[in-house]
Design brief:
Structural class: alpha/beta
Number of domains: 1
Order of helices and strands: HHHEEHEHHEEEHEHEEHEHEE
CATH superfamily: Glycoside hydrolase/deacetylase
CATH topology: TIM Barrel
Strand content: 5-15%
CATH class: Alpha Beta
Shape: globular
Radius of gyration: 33 Å
Number of helices: 10
Helix content: 25-40%
Largest sheet: 6 strands, parallel
Length: 310
Amino acid sequence: MKLRYILITLIAVAATVDGLVRLLVEMNHATLRPITLSQDVKDIKTPEVPEVSEVPESSDASEPSEIPETSETSETTDARDSTKVRSDHHVYGTVSRIAVPSSDIRILFLTFNAYTDDYPALFDLLEQRQVKATLFLTGVWVRRNADRARTVGALPALFEIENHGNRNIPLSSRGATVYERHGTSTIEQALHDAAAGAEATEQATGRKPRYIRPYYNYIDNAVVRALGDRQITTIGATILADGGGLFRSEKIKNNILDAPHGSILLFNVDARYPNILAGLQAALDAIEKERLPIRFAHLADYEPYFDYEK
């Protein structure tokens, strides 16, 4: 009897010891076992770092201060914003390229947005080289640069004078905001800004604008239709040639030389960016030196070929 009791006791003790050993082994394995990620975690990808946009050769590449609703500041922005600028903001009824008939000579349209300050060296270059260009002037610009406005107005063979609005703001029927600049809130407000800009430009230059281009090409369909009812054509751009002033001169040069037949190239009148002038001059030099078959024209010369966005 005693032997049987001793055997039972030994078996119980052995079982207890075996259980403790198994527990210890499991605990040890748990500390060494690798962590298994859930499928949701494994699917997370590290975001790619975007390429840094090209910065201007000018030393003034600092980020501008916040633009209030009625401020009269430059259209150019910092390098971060330049990556968001779209030259192809095409809206039904606008003209962003011209379907010029095929020719051995490539026809291009140089257009310049003048919103606040003068750029004497730029206008001197265009005049000296006898380059045809279209100038979109704001009411702000003609009031600040009355002498320059009279000068360009007196040269119709070179400069086509058009409207960039009165306050250099987006023309919207619902108060759209572009790069922190508030646009008009109704069609009536948009038409008023356009009319005020046209009137100021005509008074300063002696020439009545036929076309309009709003701030950063931003306009909506309702405003385009309302302007069209008043025989005012909204002009966009095929190529934002100077990147808002942020492209290097070599890129600006190539944007001109490589532009397809019938392209509307957009530049800014902004003396803070000498790379604009340098790029334009380099392109003109190349055209003359290499006898490239490129000719610059005014928009009105090819109005029958306007390619309206559909």
